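Example record

One chain of 378 residues, shown exactly as stored in the release files.
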Amino acid sequence: MITPDLSDGALAAVTAEIAETAAEYDRTGAFPEKGLDAAHRAGLLTATVGRQFGGPEVNARDTARILTALGEGDASVALLAANTLITHAGQAKNPTWPAATYREFLERSGTGSTLANAIRAEPELGAPARGGLPKTTATRTADGWVVNGRKAYATGGAGLAYHVVWVTAGDQVGHIVVPGDAAGITWIETWDHLGLRASNTHDVIYDDVHVPGDAFTEIPRGADGVYRDPAAAAGPGSFGHPALYTGVARAARKAFAEFARTRVPAALGKPIAETERIQTVAGEIDLQIAQAETLLHGALLRIEAGDQDVNLQLSVIKVAIARAVIAATQTAVAALGNPALSRHHSLERHLRDALCIRVHPPQEDAALLAAGRRVLNQ
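Predicted C-alpha cells for this chain:
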C-alpha cells in the first residue's frame, strides 16, 4: 500500500492537478474520475487504512491536511475522499466489516480509486441525526441478509464500490455492508444541486439485495433504551468534512488574489490589488481562513493531548468553522461583484461549494441548541 507524501509541496501538486478538471466536472455533473485518480496515485484515498491492515494510518490532523488540499482542488473529489477515509479510519479503530469483504476492499484500492460511504438518509426520514429510525430493512435469511429500501443523498452514486447502509434488522438498528455491484441495486439520478455538483449524491433503491451473514453490525442503544444517531453530535473523527471546506475557502482566496492582481480598470490605471480597499478585503479573507484553520487543528491537537473538555464543544467548533469558511468566500465574492458571480470565474463555484458545509450533521441549529442546554443545565 502506498505511503503518501504529505509534504506541503506534494499536496500542493495534487491540488493543482485536481483543480484542472474541477470546473468541467462541476458543469457536467459527471463522476470526477480524473480527480479521484490523482488522489489515488498519491496514496491519499487509503491514507487512513489501519496499520494492522498494512496501511499508513495517518492521524486526524494529517487527514485534515489531505482533505483541505483536495477541497482546494475540487470539493466534490474531496467529499468522496472524505467519506472513504472516514470509513477506513473507523475500520482501523473498530473493525466491523466482514474480513473477506474488507480484504477485497483493500486489494481493489491497490489498483485504482475505490470508494465507500455510509448510506443513511431517506426520502421521508431526511437526515437521521434529526431522529427517527430507517425504513430500510435487513431481514435474516438462511445464509445471510436481504436488504430492502430506498436511500437519499447517497454521495458517490454508482461510483461507490461499497455501501455501508443504515438499516433496521428486527428490533436492532445498525449498518450493513453492501458491495456496490450487488444484484438488486438501482440508482435514481436525483442530484441537481447548487454545489458539489460532481459528487453524484443520488437516491438508491435496494430490492432484495443479498449479503453475507457477517455483514451487519448493530449500533447499541443508550442506557435508557433509546437509539441515538452517532452523527447527532460531532466526534473526534468527524472533522474531515470541515477540513475539505477549509480548502474551498483557500481556493476562493487564491482566485480573489489572482483576479485582483490582473484586473486593471481604465480609470485606475493599475491593478486593483494595489488599492487599500482590496488589500483590506484580502486581509479579512485571510482572517476568516486563519480562524477556520486554527479552530480545526486546534481542536484536533487538544484531542490528541487528551483534553476531554474539548469533546463537549466539538459540535459548536464545527459551526464556527462553517461560519468562517462561508464568510471568507462571501467576502471575496462581494468585493469583486459581477465577475465573481459569473460562471466563467471559479469564485462562483467556490461560493456554491462553500455553502454546502451547512448540510453536514450536526447542523447549526441542533448544535447550538444542544450546547445551550448543556451550558444552562451545568
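Notes: The mean pLDDT is 95.
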